[in-house]
Each structure stands twice: as C-alpha cells, then as structure tokens.
Design a protein that fits this description.
alpha+beta, 3 strands, 35% helix, 35% strand
C-alpha cells in the first residue's frame, strides 16, 4: 500500500480544534480555515503513512477525546 496519507492537528494558537487525515495538507488547511478562521494552521503529525494506518491513528485520537470527524 502506498504511503500517501498525512496525519495532522489543526490548531488555533496552541489549542487543537481538529484532528484528522488527508492526502493534501494545503487543501485541507484552507478548508479548515474557512470554518475556524484564517489564523488556524495545520501541524503534520509524523510522516506520511498508509490510509489504513492513518485511519487507525484517527480512531485512537477520537478515543482520547480529540476532536475528529469520528468523535
């Protein structure tokens, strides 16, 4: 499987307001900025990985209480 998926936190200041995965960080950052405001930014977590591994990570983040599309 290709390693084509990024894991990320979208932050406003030091606060994580969204945790997710994407194959395009720039596009996803713009989407979040339209929702949360232009001062928000994405911080990549780790290296690119497989989509399956990224989904597993995202599920673990939701179980920890981080804001995700799943949680």
């Amino acid at each position: 499987m290709p390693r084509d998926t990024y894991k990320y936190h979208f932050k406003l200041g030091n606060k994580i307001v969204h945790t997710g995965i994407t194959n395009n960080l720039e596009r996803r950052e713009q989407e979040h900025q339209s929702t949360y405001g232009e001062t928000g930014h994405i911080r990549q977590v780790g290296r690119k990985t497989t989509k399956d591994a990224a989904l597993t990570w995202e599920n673990k983040q939701a179980k920890k209480g981080r804001p995700t599309r799943r949680g």
